[in-house]
């Protein structure tokens, strides 16, 4: 086996590796980037009438994306967009370059505001948030079923979300290089 055969065995895998590493779509964006909305599953918020209630969802954008919207499920299980009024307000707060938090705030909540709410962005949707409004509650803090907490993205979570794709890519590249070296060594013998 001559040097020409050696390069033909190693150049094809290296060319495939280069294509995989530098894959971009026509706009120069990562083609596998999708918006993501995070809301803790089974979230229940309790409030008394006349109080302020604020709910949120974390939103990860890939690039310039429109503002997420909030909707409320009606009796026929259709999610209708929540419109902002003097008593209902939406707000979008930036955490990092691609991570935002969308808030839906009721300044003076009423019993008619009770129901299931959801944060959505194009095809990405979060889990529903169950809002329970009663006449009087002793403790109006947010309650969560299954002892889960509603958390926003902290700096460590944001760092881990940023690092994991590179960890997986690096592991895949290492396996690929080992396979190429093994095939090259076996083909030399």
From TrEMBL:
Record keyword Aminoacyl-tRNA synthetase present: no
Domain Ig-like stretches: 35-134
GO molecular function: signaling receptor activity
Record field: transmembrane: 162-186
GO cellular component: plasma membrane
Presence of keyword Methyltransferase: no
A GO BP entry: immune response-regulating cell surface receptor signaling pathway
Secretion signal, residue range per the UniProt entry: 1-28
Keyword line: Membrane, Signal, Transmembrane, Transmembrane helix
Protein name in the entry: Ig-like domain-containing protein
Species the sequence originates in: Oncorhynchus tshawytscha (Chinook salmon)
């Amino acid at each position: 086996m001559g040097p020409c055969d050696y390069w033909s065995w190693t150049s094809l895998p290296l060319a495939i590796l280069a294509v995989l590493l530098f894959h971009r779509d026509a706009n120069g964006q990562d083609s596998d980037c999708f918006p993501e909305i995070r809301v803790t599953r089974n979230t229940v918020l309790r409030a008394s009438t006349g109080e302020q209630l604020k709910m949120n969802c974390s939103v990860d954008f890939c690039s310039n994306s429109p503002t997420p919207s909030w909707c409320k499920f009606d009796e026929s299980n259709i999610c209708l967009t929540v419109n902002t009024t003097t008593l209902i307000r939406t707000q979008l707060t930036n955490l990092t370059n691609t991570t935002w938090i969308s808030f839906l705030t009721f300044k003076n909540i009423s019993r008619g505001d009770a129901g299931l709410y959801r944060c959505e962005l194009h095809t990405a949707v979060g889990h529903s948030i169950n809002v329970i409004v009663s006449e009087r509650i002793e403790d109006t803090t947010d309650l969560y079923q299954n002892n889960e907490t509603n958390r926003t993205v902290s700096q460590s979570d944001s760092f881990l979300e940023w690092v994991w794709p590179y960890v997986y890519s690096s592991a895949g590249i290492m396996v690929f290089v080992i396979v190429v070296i093994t095939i090259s060594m076996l083909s030399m013998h």
